[in-house]
Design brief:
The longest helix is centred in the N-terminal third of the chain and has 14 residues. The protein is 19% helix and 30% strand. The mean pLDDT is 93. By secondary structure, the chain is α+β, with helices and mostly antiparallel strands. Helix 2 runs parallel beside helix 6 and helix 2 crosses helix 9. It starts with 5 loop residues before the first strand and ends with a strand. A nine-stranded antiparallel sheet has the order 28-27-26-25-33-32-31-30-29, with no helix packed on it. Strands 19-18-17-24-23-22-21-20 form an eight-stranded antiparallel sheet, with no helix packed on it. Strands 1-3-2-16-15-14-13 form a seven-stranded antiparallel sheet.
Length: 548
């Protein structure tokens, strides 16, 4: 049952193709999606599929309010652009000029570093997770700022790397407040939303504020596709997220990229200017929005996810078109759906480059000399801390986190393989100068990753006992305990159950949490354990001292 629809000048055949993309969610028993297609100065198609609220059977419509999650960032960035245009601030100024309270980390961090995610500042959401904050705990802007005031080190020197961090946009929201005396909610309302007529859009800066017509977020519950659980939205931090809007309003923002009513085309050019690292390398990320191409056309786009909300907008400025997909289902992939919609309207003029097809003959994966690869079987950690495993099963080499459960690898030449199900991914096995077993992973577009093998065989309790103790992080003022239970190391902390740890070699402790990821053991010259540091996703080199 589809909710009310708006359509202008679209053939029935095109409408049927669009609806078919969302057919599985077009029921009274599932969360769903709201979509919009913009052309020139009109929202030419808008429709809702599925339920905004399952408990009360309220359908999704183009008027339904969604949390935009990280799609919010471009509005924070545009606020900074408008203030810079007025001369109220400078993008290349040190942030301490506007935020005197931010710690002195002995490096110049500019507003542009924040906008491009090149600041090196750790992600406050992840830091809260490390401190024991659960996803359903309330996180306010004040909570996140309190964490940021305690940062003692950066992930990297500003401008040397790109690393997505929500903290950058928390700080930008505070800079808006410092310069204007207005909250981000107040400022964006006056300079963006009112000029554009976005009457149902605002930064939701009070987590318990009632918002009429809002979609509830859901997760799929277990393996049963007909059961859903509530995804509790408990954050009200502004800047990186918490913008509330709907399809009708967001279509007006899409139009502003090529027919401006808030700011002008010079401001849009600044917003969409790609960032650069100190060495001159150009980034895909601009100011709160990514700049790339699809179907041969220049595109501005950004996705968002928070609790059970998944959002995506894309703008094709040269075509004066835009595609919007919002969902209240945590398992939904809005970018994939939006790209499929765009493909119904945009023909790619470039020659088709079809990816290598997956293999179909499993005998091609059978090794002529399995024994030659046996030395390379085991567990690896990549340079970005992702865990890998390679295993021999029935004379085939398999990729996967556990023995034999991943896809097979097809041999190409000596020590060189490609993935049976995705031949574009290749692995090359070798020994490095330290006689360590290493693997280099190669993807299209010159992307690569380096893996090093570590021994993960179970150590005797006497050795494992040396890792146990209490570890204290002065930056976060929190403790973790490493304990030995049933011959296995476990990590325990506030509000957390015991987290199993896997010892890689002597100094890496891997786990399945998103916030702690890999833990690197630190030792003194006598080889005694003095602490550990967390190296995980958006937080690196976070130090914990062993206190007992």
């Amino acid at each position: 049952m589809a909710a009310p629809v708006s359509a202008q000048h679209l053939p029935d055949s095109t409408i049927k193709k669009i609806d078919s993309l969302f057919k599985q969610w077009d029921t009274k028993t599932s969360p769903g999606s709201a979509i919009g297609i913009v052309r020139n100065d009109s929202l030419i198609y808008a429709k809702g599929y599925g339920m905004a609220n399952l408990e009360y059977e309220i359908p999704i419509t183009p008027e339904t309010i969604f949390d935009m999650a990280s799609v919010s960032k471009q509005f924070t960035a545009f606020s900074i652009v408008l203030l810079a245009r007025q001369g109220a601030l400078n993008l290349d100024e040190d942030i301490h000029r506007y935020l005197s309270w931010f710690p002195d980390l002995k490096e110049k961090i500019t507003l542009r570093n924040l906008l491009n995610h090149t600041s090196g500042i750790r992600d406050a959401y992840q830091l809260l997770g490390i401190m024991g904050t659960r996803p359903d705990d309330v996180n306010t802007q004040e909570d996140l700022i309190r964490v940021l005031t305690k940062q003692q080190f950066l992930n990297f020197k500003p401008g040397t790397e790109y690393r997505y961090s929500n903290s950058n946009y928390n700080l930008l929201a505070e800079i808006v407040k410092s310069v204007t005396g207005k909250t981000l909610r107040q400022f964006t309302d006056s300079v963006i939303f009112k000029p554009l007529g976005m009457k149902n859009t605002h930064f939701h800066d009070r987590y318990n504020e009632v918002e009429s017509n809002r979609a509830y977020g859901y997760w799929q519950a277990g393996k049963n596709k007909d059961h859903y659980g509530n995804a509790i939205l408990s954050s009200a931090s502004t800047g990186p997220a918490s913008l509330f809007s709907n399809i009708n309003d967001m279509s007006k923002w899409i139009m502003n990229f090529y027919s401006t009513r808030a700011g002008d085309l010079q401001d849009i050019a600044q917003l969409t200017q790609k960032g650069r690292l100190n060495d001159g390398k150009e980034l895909q990320y601009a100011l709160g929005i990514e700049v790339d191409s699809l179907y041969g056309e220049r595109r501005y786009q950004h996705s968002g996810w928070e609790a059970g909300y998944r959002t995506f907008i894309s703008v094709f400025p040269d075509l004066k078109m835009g595609f919007i997909v919002f969902s209240n289902l945590g398992d939904f992939k809005p970018q994939f759906a939006a790209n499929q919609m765009a493909g119904l309207f945009i023909k790619d003029p470039s020659p088709k480059k079809n990816p290598a097809p997956a293999y179909t003959d499993s005998s091609l994966a059978v090794l002529k000399d399995p024994a030659a690869m046996k030395k390379f079987t085991g567990n690896y950690i990549a340079d970005d801390h992702v865990e890998f495993g390679f295993w021999l099963v029935n004379n085939k080499l398999h990729l996967g986190p556990s023995n034999g459960k991943g896809p097979a690898l097809v041999p190409l030449a000596k020590d060189s393989f490609e993935v049976f199900t995705n031949p574009e991914v290749k692995f090359v096995f070798s020994l490095n100068s330290k006689n360590e077993k290493v693997v280099d992973e190669y993807w299209p577009e010159k992307r690569s990753r380096h893996l090093v093998m570590y021994d993960t065989t179970t150590k005797p309790d006497k050795i494992l006992q040396t890792y146990t103790g209490t570890y204290y992080c002065p930056e976060l003022d929190c403790n973790y305990h490493i304990v030995l239970k049933d011959h296995h190391l476990m990590l325990a902390g506030n509000k957390l159950g015991d987290i199993p740890l896997t010892l890689y070699g002597n100094d890496w402790l891997a786990n399945d949490t998103w916030y702690m990821g890999n833990i690197m053991i630190l030792r003194n010259r006598k080889n005694q354990i003095t602490g550990f540091e967390v190296d995980a996703d958006r937080v690196d080199h976070l130090w914990f001292k062993k206190t007992e």
